[in-house]
Amino acid sequence: MTQKVAVLGTGKIGEALLSGMIGAGWAPADLLVTARRQERADELRTRHGVTPVTNAEAAKTADTLILTVKPQDMGTLLDELAPHIPADRLVISGAAGIPTAFFEERLAPGTPVVRVMTNTPALVDEAMSVISAGTHATADHLAHAEEIFGAVGKTLRVPESQQDACTALSGSGPAYFFYLVEAMTDAGILLGLPRDKAHDLIVQSAIGAAKMLRDSGEHPVKLRENVTSPAGTTINAIRELENHGVRAALIAALEAARDRSRELASGTKD
User: CB–CB of 117/157 below 8 Å?
Assistant: First the structure.
């Protein structure tokens, strides 16, 4: 792999991406990074053997630029990069809510842009990354983005119009599961279990259930029904979940996340 790839604004997700790429065969010498603090840049060099550069140097040197800064910082970064990015560079955005048009308006005409929404399981190479093409991105550009993000998990192509929904489901999705585990752990303590035992029971149950969903090919309703005996413990628990509107609350939560993604796209700040 001879193309140079630069990760700009290398935080936790950016570093996970670097680690995954190196594990997948990229040479560290072909990977460039930028970081706001020099100490962070030095840490990345020591840990991964990659080359820290300035944002301008990355724009001039790399064939592919992966922008991983926060959405509210993206405009400032593009102002800095725009004079230095040739139109043949591939720009990949990992910022929630920002459409490819935002980049295309600020970069040289014809610059290919790919939008990617990944999530924190990238830290353990189990990410779900959703990929969409901008106006000038080709099938080869999409395939290159899939190759990069495939190093840290699974990828899925969607039309950009579906990105806000994917952000709500997948980008924010791990937080919902962590929230559920937290609540179930508290319930286990209420039922008389020590916290560590409640945690272990729930986490392993979650891992097993996720693998069944992924590997069995069965619909989640069927898998749930397999656990739900007539007049048993599970159906009584599910009745309470329905009585408390858990399903409706989840739908409302995802709609709220989608709406916030749209607000970010329109320039609303925290």
Answer: no
